[in-house]
Amino acid sequence: MEGINFNQYGVTFKGSGSYVPGQILTNQKISQKVDTSNEWIQSRTGISERRISSVEDNVTEMGYKAALTAIEMTNWDIKTIDLIVLATSTPHDLFGSAPSIQAKLGATNAVAFDLTAACSGFLFALITASQFLKGGSFKRAIVIGADQLSSFVDWNDRRSCILFGDGAGALAIEATNEFDNFIGFDMRTDGGRGSFLNLPSKKNKGSIVDEIDFLNGGFSPIQMNGQEVYKFAVKEVPLILEKLLKKMKYNSDQVDWLLLHQANQRILDSVGERLKIPREKILSNLEKYGNTSAATIPLMMDEAVRDCRIKQNDIIATSGFGAGLSWGAALIKWG
């Protein structure tokens, strides 16, 4: 693909899309499986229901449908898309699901690849794609966040099974030499705390021939230290957002919307309070969808764009955080 040669270049946000499976798992239904209640779940997480993928609703299908709705908002010719980045930790194909999405879209001129950073994945993918556009390598990109965590949840563990759902979201972004709506970003990783939240491989040993062993493929259910993850999020997310706002010479009063990874309503409220951002400016839809990992930020953004809460030139402070442990922040202007 030939690069574009702008003397000055930035990123503009052209479209959003999302998709959620049709199956709805309410708190009442979960209480039929494990010892919990609607009141207990809501008071601790803010979640009322979540979407669960059927066999047909894999990450490739969900990501494709979210990307297609984002492209439809832009009126782009699909052949003009240069780059597709899929953020997921639950690919339909471990060798990569983004190429399958590229083929289903018919985006034959686009390079496509997966990026894995769990709940920080979409933000990391958006930053990655934006750097390709800012660097002049590509002009148009689709960034997708899609996860199917229901396949990796221990549905007998009431501490974790109440949190997660499935879904996908996407943004269409374009390089421009007129302005830059991707104002700034920051990213962090602390692998020393990685054991707080992971999805490890199973330790099932097999034997090929005598004295030659191997590890059978497969993964254990999600393992999570909820208390430590909560403490990490309420400490690190405000710090990275405060640092980014200061670096870009913005203050919290100039932020129209705070859009965080949708993990827990108490985390959202705590970060907003720390940043002195009123609750009416904090975007939240986890009541309906729970934690969809890499999908939460674009799913929420698409909802707010389509119901006209997010308007042209609105300033959005966003942060993704989770397994790794990894976290990041970005400051963008919509449009």
Can you describe this structure?
There is one protein chain. The chain has 335 residues and is an alpha+beta fold. It folds into two domains: 10-180, 3-Layer(aba) Sandwich (Peroxisomal Thiolase, Chain A, domain 1); 183-193 and 221-333, Thiolase/Chalcone synthase (Peroxisomal Thiolase, Chain A, domain 1, 3-Layer(aba) Sandwich). The chain contains nine helices and 15 strands. It has helices at residues 27-30, 38-45, 59-74, 98-105, 121-134, 226-247, 265-275, 286-289, 296-306, and strands spanning 10-19, 23-26, 49-52, 83-87, 111-115, 140-148, 166-176, 182-189, 197-198, 205-209, 212-215, 223-224, 257-260, 315-322, 326-333. A five-stranded mixed β-sheet has the order 1-7-6-4-5, with helices on both faces. The longest helix is centred in the last third of the chain and has 22 residues, at 226-247. The protein starts with 9 loop residues before the first strand and ends with a strand. Residues 1-6 have low confidence and may be disordered.
Give the topology:
Elements: E1 10-19, E2 23-26, H1 27-30, H2 38-45, E3 49-52, H3 59-74, E4 83-87, H4 98-105, E5 111-115, H5 121-134, E6 140-148, E7 166-176, E8 182-189, E9 197-198, E10 205-209, E11 212-215, E12 223-224, H6 226-247, E13 257-260, H7 265-275, H8 286-289, H9 296-306, E14 315-322, E15 326-333
Parallel strand pairs: 4-5, 4-6, 13-14
Antiparallel strand pairs: 1-7, 2-3, 6-7, 8-15, 9-12, 10-11, 14-15
